[in-house]
Amino acid sequence: MQKDQLFTRRRMLLAGVAALGSAGTAGAILAGDGEETVRAAAAPAPGPQARPALGPSAFRLRPLTGYGPPRTPPRKLKVREKPILRISGRGRRMVLTFDDGPHPEYTPHILDTLARHRARAMFFVCGECVVDNRELLARMAEEGHVVGNHTWTHPLLTSLGRKEIRSEMERTSDIIEDTYGDRPQWFRAPYGAWNRASFQLGAELGMEPMAWTLDTTDWMEPGTDTIVDQVESGAAPGVVVLSHDAGGDRSQTVRAIREWLPRLLDSGYHLTVPRRRV
């Protein structure tokens, strides 16, 4: 079932619980080429930073023959009490994230724009959307983007039992690995509604919890200009931007990124992704 069919219900839920994803004191994770650390969030010092060329992808899709080695058990992580809301590091670094896809109409346009400007992003995908759009995950891998887990059906996790939450997360990790070549190392709770079980199960499945700093409000379909204004007014070092490539009509998101992405890059921002764990 495509996410578009759940859009009305999501909009009502998201209006009530989106703030949960950004409440409290955030953790920050270093992105880019430095040593990966987690610490209390502090705003990095602003300053110009040259935009580097995007090198060959470190996330190449491995051939999937059906006769490969069995899945490697995920490395269990420390259980967090709050999601990561921003990144730390030198210079004007930001992370672009897209939720709810992949979508056959909107995701390719977003990938085209990112490729045109040699920028990488994170895509938090829903397992049920991957089923009919595996080629889009393959493209994400080839173009150096990071794929994260956004559950199978995009439920409100706080309304589910532990067994149901595990199924939503584990099934999605499995299909990402089968399609993308790697198990996801990042998880985002639908609607930004976290609970203790989601933190515990995410850590057991080898995933860090990532929320966001800046909500573009594109899920409300406020108009292209409003989305552009949200991004440009909220841009700052360390910010994690929330957008959507599915879950409703995302034509405004597609048009908006074509405007604000080159402007951010021209103003000295470096669009990065968190460092991949080895």
TrEMBL record:
EC number: 3.-.-.-
Disordered: annotated span: 44-76
UniProt keyword list: Hydrolase, Metal-binding, Signal
InterPro entries: Glyco_hydro/deAcase_b/a-brl, NODB_dom, Polysacc_deacetylase_ArnD, TAT_signal
Enzyme class: hydrolase
Extent of Low complexity compositional bias: 44-56
Entry keyword annotation includes Signal: yes
Signal sequence extent: 1-28
Molecular function via GO: hydrolase activity
Keyword Signal: yes
Record-annotated NodB homology domain positions: 92-272
PANTHER family tied to this protein: CHITIN DEACETYLASE 1-RELATED, GLYCOSYL TRANSFERASE-RELATED
This protein's name: Polysaccharide deacetylase family protein
Protein species of origin: Streptomyces nogalater
